[in-house]
Amino acid sequence: MNPDLNQLQPYPFQKLAKLFGEVTPNVAYKPISLHIGEPKHATPQFIRDALVAGLDGLANYPTTIGSDALRSAIANWLARRYAIPAPDAKTQILPVNGSREALFAFAQAVIDRSRPHPTPDGTTIHSTKPASGQVAGYLPEGEGVSPAVVCPNPFYQIYEGAAFLAGAAPYFLNTLPEDNYALNFAQLPEAVWQRTQLIFVCSPGNPNGRVMPLAEWKTLFEMSDRYGFVIASDECYSEIYFGEDKPLGALQAAQQLGRGDYKNLVVFSSLSKRSNVPGLRSGFVAGDAKILEKFALYRTYHGCAMNPAIQAATIAAWNDEAHVAENRRLYAEKFEKTIAILTPVLPVSKPDASFYLWIRTPIADTAFAQQLYRDYNVSVLPGSFLGREARGVNPGANFIRLALVANLDETLEAARRITAFTSKLN
């Protein structure tokens, strides 16, 4: 077996199941789940209809790059959404089976294990795996010679797993409330940046919902030019926002900064949250044509072409915005009313975007989540399960993540139970 599998940690929901397994929930309350970001709003009927209408396509093998109509629909959506020139549908767009599998696969295609890296003493060596029992990403920063993959902390766990299975070492940028969850690139030393081949960023962020501003993109692009790393921008929450303040996207930032070729930049997006179709497993990557050409080659051997019926439903979804506006309206109502209920007992505020509330807890996050589940049968995710200790701190500790994905009544009932529970702690 691949020894890098031994470096993978249990997924956050596995950790949560173990934590909850230590107690018995209060069955006097109906269970309410706010721990997982799985959309619960109804899938629009027109998407269902398009899926059924596309079933004749099951008689044919799909191509890895998808149909011309699918890639054109995605390119045109990007142009409308971000007010940018439509990307080249043939070279700058690639459909994928959801952003999760694509984010993982991308690291496998991008990381070059043989690329030489400088060492602190000025010599140059080739990448090697960490010694037995060591995980390069958890060594003191600057040590190790594996390719480096940088990501925010807390983070979506796929980033870390993708790094390990690509033979690279993950390094973490702590995102802290006192810094407004900004990506402070100065946290990592020069020795790490010189080995960095890939950086994952997430905007709007999971779990904090923060949107990266243009100035931060400018710094990131300059660092990419300096060190030659690829930027993988995870934007699966881009369509869950409030009012008319649309989150800035990576391709949009690149255009505004005169980087229309999208050098070393690839964006990942998905219909799961936007259109309430997590089971459809439909998304895309877009950006640097040279990188996507190689990624398409990888995917051809990987065998991950999109189902033709799903392609038909996907085209319909990207071509409609009315259902997305209604989806945002539902979330906005839940945020407004939930925050009003929680504010008297918890320091809660609305994020820039996404459907998460990221809340500091008055006791340890694991104890808060476990006792809330035991006493009130509400499940939330401890923030420490989404982070790793870096530079002496796990920035997810003493936070919980609430996914406001249930219907309005359930969400507000959960908020009332959380308020009752927290009031007993104070």
List keywords for this structure.
single chain; globular; alpha/beta; Aspartate Aminotransferase, domain 2; 426 residues; seven-stranded mixed sheet; Aspartate Aminotransferase, domain 1
CATH class of the largest domain: Alpha Beta
Number of domains: 2
Please report the total strand number as a whole number. 14
Strand content: 5-15%
For this entry, what is the oligomeric state of its chains?
Answer: single chain
Low-pLDDT segments: 119-137
Please give the order of strands in the largest beta sheet: 2-10-9-8-7-5-6
Distance between the termini: 50 Å
Largest sheet: 7 strands, mixed
Q: Which secondary-structure class do the elements indicate?
A: alpha/beta
Q: Would you identify the CATH architecture of the largest domain?
A: 3-Layer(aba) Sandwich
Identify the overall geometry. globular
Helix content percent band: 25-40%
Radius of gyration: 22 Å
Find the CATH superfamily of the largest domain: Type I PLP-dependent aspartate aminotransferase-like (Major domain)
* Number of helices, where a helix is a run of at least 4 consecutive DSSP H or I residues: 14
What number is the mean pLDDT?
93
Description:
The chain has 426 residues and is an alpha/beta fold. It has helices spanning 12-20, 45-53, 68-82, 99-110, 158-165, 190-195, 214-227, 250-256, 272-275, 289-302, 308-318, 322-342, 365-376, 408-425, and strands at residues 32-33, 93-96, 116-118, 124-126, 148-153, 169-174, 196-202, 230-234, 265-270, 283-287, 356-360, 378-379, 381-382, 399-403. The protein folds into two domains: 3-42 and 322-425, Aspartate Aminotransferase, domain 1; 59-318, Aspartate Aminotransferase, domain 2. It is globular and about 60 Å long.
